[in-house]
Amino acid sequence: MSTRTAARPFGRTLCAMITPFTEAGALDLDGARKLAAWLVTEGCDGLVLSGTTGESPTTSDTEKAELIAAVREAVGDRASLVAGVGTADTRHTVELARAAGAAGADGVLVVTPYYSRPPQDAVEAHFREVADASGLPVMLYDIPGRTGTRIEPETMIRLAAHPGIVAVKDCSYDFLGTQKVLAHTDLAYYAGCDEHVLALYAVGAAGCISTVANTVPGRIAAILDAFDAGDTARATELQLRATPLIEAMMGAGLPGTVTAKTLLTRLGLPAGPVRAPLLPAGQEPAEELLARYETLMAA
Fold first, then answer.
1. For residue 93, what are the CA distances in angstroms to 122, 123, 133, 240?
2. Per-residue pLDDT tens for 97-131?
3. Residue 189 designated active-site
4. Which residues pair with 142 in a beta bridge?
5. pLDDT tens for each residue of 175-216
6. Is 180 a catalytic residue?
7. Residue 53 marked in a binding site
8. Using an 8 Å Cβ cutoff, are 9 and 167 in contact?
9. Number of CB atoms found within 10 A of residue 53's CB
10. Which of 34, 53, 57, 82 lies 20 to 30 A from 110 at CA?
11. Which run of H or of E encompasses 169?
């Protein structure tokens, strides 16, 4: 059984950063630098680039590398950078992982191969091959609602023995399975669902990877600050205060990328449009997002 430690290989409060685009739809590197610097100044000690929220399915390999280099230039050593490199193709994933390291990433986020729905032995072999080849510490990304395939707890426990596999972004919605892995490994777990930030932290997670932190990084960091200070009542209060915005951004039927970019644009921060097949939010959800943001910030 593990003796849970405070090991945080990529920091504690990570933002699943959007990828800013120009109005013409091109990669906005200047906007990415500005947004990354703001997020770190406001409380994030890590950034995840080219994840789901970063529109990785619609950015090219070249754009992914350019984004890492630009954000590294902006934040220096003030924050860790984790690059999303997962694809449905093991060879391509290895190529992206190596390119991420060359561009300045500190680690790689590797999602379960999607669409082909590989069985668990193939899932395990995929992660081991990427970890062996990448040269960077690996964070597994368990999000079966999008990939169609779990990383089963038993598979996680076996993968934890690999020296290059150090962390998990948990979007499994299997709290019992997560606790089982926490109890039997030293993997650093990061809550990938904003409604689980405090709950997962309370049972030994290293922190969170938050989409909502694109817009309220300080409010997300404050939840974990309060818990670390021993003020669990305050941490609970802050999590619950954030819940209406979390619901509007993550549970109202629009992808988090869309809601985050919508609200960032309203706040005058770099974002730009989403790329197809995503569509922008309409006027009504945009107004609701802004209203919930303003209510949270006034609390």
1. 15, 13, 10, 38
2. 999 999 999 999 999 999 999 999 999 999 999 99
3. no
4. 170
5. 999 999 999 999 999 999 999 999 999 999 999 999 999 999
6. no
7. yes
8. yes
9. 26
10. 34
11. strand 165-170
